[in-house]
From TrEMBL:
Keywords: Disulfide bond, Endonuclease, Glycoprotein, Hydrolase, Metal-binding, Nuclease, Signal. It holds the Pfam family S1-P1_nuclease. Belongs to the nuclease type I family. InterPro entries: PLipase_C/P1_nuclease_dom_sf (IPR008947), S1/P1nuclease (IPR003154). Residues 1-18 form the signal peptide. One of its GO terms (biological process) is DNA catabolic process. This is Nuclease PA3.
Amino acid sequence: MSTTLLLIALSALQGADAWGGLGHQTTGFIAQNFVHPATEAWAQNILSNTNSSYLASVATWADSFRYTDEGSFSSPFHYIDAEDDPPKSCNVDFERDCGDAGCVVTAIANYTQRVQDGRHSDQEIDYALRFLVHFIGDITQPLHDEAFEIGGNGVNVTFDGDDTNLHSVWDTSMPEELVGGYELEDAEAWAANLTTEIRNGTFAASSKSWLQGLDIEDPKASAMVWAQDGNNVVMPDGIEPLEGNDLYPGYYKGAIDTVELQIAKAGYRLAAWLDALAAKSDVSKRWQPREQYWKIGTQGVKLEQDFSGSDLLREPRAAKSKAKMRRQAIGWGCGHKH
Ligand SMILES: *[C@@H]1O[C@H](CO)[C@@H](O)[C@H](O)[C@H]1NC(C)=O
Ligand SMILES: *[C@@H]1O[C@H](CO)[C@@H](O)[C@H](O)[C@H]1NC(C)=O
Ligand SMILES: *[C@@H]1O[C@H](CO)[C@@H](O)[C@H](O)[C@H]1NC(C)=O
Ligand SMILES: *[C@@H]1O[C@H](CO)[C@@H](O)[C@H](O)[C@H]1NC(C)=O
Ligand SMILES: *[C@@H]1O[C@H](CO)[C@@H](O)[C@H](O)[C@H]1NC(C)=O
Ligand SMILES: [Zn+2]
């Protein structure tokens, strides 16, 4: 895709919720429709849930977890603040854009490693899978791949008369306007529609291309392809036409096809990613004795291994960019919730 597509003015992502509940659950249901039966069994085992919404019902967990004391560390994992210059120039640069504590790209890489690492506890592996289901959704939301105005959170608009901001319009207002609700059943119905469009409809011809660059052996590079793809969906006219205006129905009509496209991509990629993970997961590696957590250092001293994924991060910087400081100042959480 390119800047010729309409879309987002540069918005960016920001710390908010990425897709709202409806978008994330729809992504989960689409993935359920596409995964291999062996993947379904693998995921249901990890999640201890065999019901008809085993992925969809954990798809928003990460947005609740981030607001707990235990989970606050994961707030920066929902986005990558690309400090590009839309609409003139759009791009994501890992070294420039990923924050000191990580971003959605490192998070996808980290939890891809963790979900297949049997040295972690069952609960850590369960969390890793929940994070992946969520973040592969977040990374397709264009405003989660752009720093402009904190992912569009700073662009005040109205939507059908309600005061909101550009980020929330993408996460929540446009999906809910299209579907007419935000319950689990609404997500299931939307997913059924998009699944048919992928199998035998509008998306049948292009869906294979959505998996380009997907390499389970290089999760960071794969996630960068997805971030770049989301970031590409930028509105060429800048935000001036949006700020202070009602985005319904004009802007909505121009953008809703892209919303559907991105949700469909997220679900389809999630299925392919989980298939690849399940295929290489070695169940016998689980339940290794606790000793496996240690390696022997010099003079026979046992050292605890580093499982923090810190090697995925870039070098921290002494000075933060203006965009990173603004992000920090909003305290990470300005999502629109029901
Ligand atoms: C499936 O299980 C989850 C987790 O227990 C629950 O939240 C959800 O409501 C269940 N869904 C159905 C359709 O039973
Ligand atoms: C946008 O709205 C918020 C309150 O919702 C307000 O604090 C902020 O100043 C507004 N920004 C602009 C640029 O008008
Ligand atoms: C999906 O929904 C749209 C809009 O309601 C409709 O036009 C289209 O035919 C539906 N596709 C399928 C495969 O049902
Ligand atoms: C795909 O759609 C076409 C036209 O809508 C229909 O004739 C055909 O039976 C469908 N194929 C499948 C496999 O559903
Ligand atoms: C990897 O995941 C663990 C467990 O959630 C977390 O403590 C760590 O900070 C993560 N590392 C990165 C680089 O995201
Ligand atoms: Zn999120």
